[in-house]
UniProtKB/TrEMBL annotation:
It comes from Dekkera bruxellensis. Belongs to the OXA1/ALB3/YidC family. One of its GO terms (cellular component) is mitochondrial inner membrane. Keywords: Membrane, Transmembrane, Transmembrane helix. It is found in: Membrane. The keyword NADP does not apply. Residues 132-285 form the Membrane insertase YidC/Oxa/ALB C-terminal domain. GO terms for biological process: mitochondrial respiratory chain complex IV assembly; protein insertion into mitochondrial inner membrane from matrix. One of its GO terms (molecular function) is membrane insertase activity. The keyword Transmembrane helix applies. This is Membrane insertase YidC/Oxa/ALB C-terminal domain-containing protein. The lineage of its organism: Eukaryota, Fungi, Dikarya, Ascomycota, Saccharomycotina. The chain crosses the membrane at residues 40-62, 147-165, 200-220, 252-271.
Amino acid sequence: MARKPHNFQTRNFTMEPIIAILDQGTMYIEMIHSMSGIPWWGFIPLLTIALRSVITLPLAIIQRKGFQKQNSFRPIINALSPVLKIKLAAKGQESQLARKLNPNKSPPIKSETEGLTGDKIMILASKEKFRRQRKIFKENGCQSWKFMLLPAVQIPLWVSISYMLRTLTGWSALGTRPIDPTLTTEGLGYLTDLAVSDPYFVLPVILGIFALANAEWNFATADLMKLTTRGVRNSLRPTAFDMIMTMSRGSIIFLMAMSTQAPAALVLYWISSNCFSLCQNLLMDKFIPVRYTPYRRFYSTKRLSRGAVALIDY
């Protein structure tokens, strides 16, 4: 008896709806540019500032305030470790003493505190510390998962605007005419045609400077959070964050290499976006600092009253 063939259901995924939305956005950008009368070399940075200010800046401020709230609880959370270790060690001693007093009586179920060693105490204390940390963050509305909202919005926005400008410049094949012919005449200086790449590689170098400055500033700010009150790091071992730092520096080199072949209009958007991010981070570190210890940026002795004596050397 012949078997009936299986009927497999297949799903086809298509990018056409997303591309249609992006193409519609490209038309809106072109329409706003024609209505504004601003040349492309000025319109692209202004468009970047407007979009980032309306969409990502409020999310960045919310994220920074969440970081502030989390760091305000760090002293309490860090103080839990020695207390938890002492409690676990005391429980371990109690269980050992109980076994010595009643050697013939054994508990029906072996608990976690049974036969505690130094390594086991550290592991159990760390687990309990992180459990209480999550509870504190949840009770105060500053859970770590909320901080993923900003990159979840900022990265698609960056990709979308890059695609739209790529479409406007016609950077899909060599020799393709740009969709918007004004891009070929509304450049600045020696680069009047923004639909072609920079022949002198000035824009890629500027992009690399801003991107690297932004990355290094963020890395330095994050590194300050690893300092103890004595001004030393908790650990000198390489961490996952150190690996992310190295990968980010490598991605900047890749972005610079790609920008040597990309249209100048697209590179101008990348420069504007990185410049906005750098200015945003500088201002936030000044007005909404994250660090709860004395290692703050932009410290000034002018804030001290006359005759005041500094207790901590900055």
